[in-house]
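example protein:
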Amino acid sequence: MSRLQSNCILVAITAVCTAGCIFFVSGSFICQAPPPIAPLQTACPDMVEQAMAPIEDLRVIAQDIKPLAETFSRPMDAGPRSQLKQRFDRLYFAPWTTAEPLFDIQTVTEGIKRLTTRTWYGEDRLRASPARMKSLLALTDQEHLPSTDQPAIVIKPAFVRVLPTNRPLYETPDDAPFDHLQFAELKPNEPARILHRSRDGAWIYIETSSVNGWVEPDAIRLADDGLRSRLLTAEQVVVVKDFATVRTEEGKTLPQPKIGTLYPLIREGQDHWLIEAAIGADDDRAIFTTARIAKADARRHPLPFAPEAVTDVGNELIKTPYGWGEMYRNRDCSATTRDFLLAFGIWLPRNSVKQINAGQPMSLAGLSAAAKEQRIREQGIPFRTLLHHPGHIMLYVGLRNNKPIVLHTIWALRVKHGNCPEQKYPIARTILSSLEAGKELPLAKGTLLDRLDGMLVLPAAD
């Protein structure tokens, strides 16, 4: 065989065996089959990108309360409504009418001590130092809590914090927006009680009917006997539009209220309500100033459970982005249920666990999905029924195609694709959905219906 022929054969064999190996055995060429090629690892999908396309429920369920409200047929009679108003007033004004703190002081102090011993991460994604936690604990001056007891009133929207600081604490470096020091937002005119001051005087520890924690002092003023008496006895209007405009008779714009804010009514005008709003005086006291709010932005409190009213409030809430602890003046799940029902004269505590236990809830744990749906259809009252699964609360608003529909504010659905780590499919707003929202996704924890464990029909007995 010529050198040229040998070279040609070698080239041919090399071409055939490109993916394999060539061995010389007794002067012969042997081509070994290549090992099987492992399948390429599929890249894990980007949930933020995927969420740009809405889940199926948001494509097929109109984000409008009106069709559900129009089928609502369970209004409340005058007698129960009167009893409900009395109960609401008793709970809402409790900071002014009870002799003892509403929240157990020992439980509060022990909880704060435990919190400051945990591992947290700051806004810089670095671990919060023990020195920082020690200094925050020292600021609370817990040894002297409570150091005072003064009736007060909120004069502008303000955030309630678990510790006296505006800086966040996260469970992991990338856990934003879940700042565990963010509790809730106070509403203008809300009754409060001042119980303590931070060691540096920059924060005050307060209670309202539903929350307790630290607030910056410029949001709160002392409420004297006359002011409290006026608010306790006056007919009131309730705000039904977020960020409504409230102006004094002199034309000064006051801090914008959200749904559920209450104002004493002076009189009804042709296109506005004349109301009283708490503002700060020259000293530490609050005084009332006369102001106006458009009739479209407020109604007499409490609203009736009627189609027009539930449509107006429900559709306004649907506009709300998600906000953990009402951060950025948005809402989380329990803020949505609280604000909706507050407009109708039903008082609720602040978090989901306390809300589902604001009465005698019906357990749904252990039931099949079909049995849960049947229980809701048979015993749930639209717009007056809370549904709960651990960490989340929803308002049942009626049926669509014989399936329960809920109004709720949700951050994300947990999903898991194959071997990819669990991810969050963001929704981050208030929506109308079924209890199987996102069922077309590979849900890591099952549907809302799978996890549903409780139902509470309101109003509930004490």
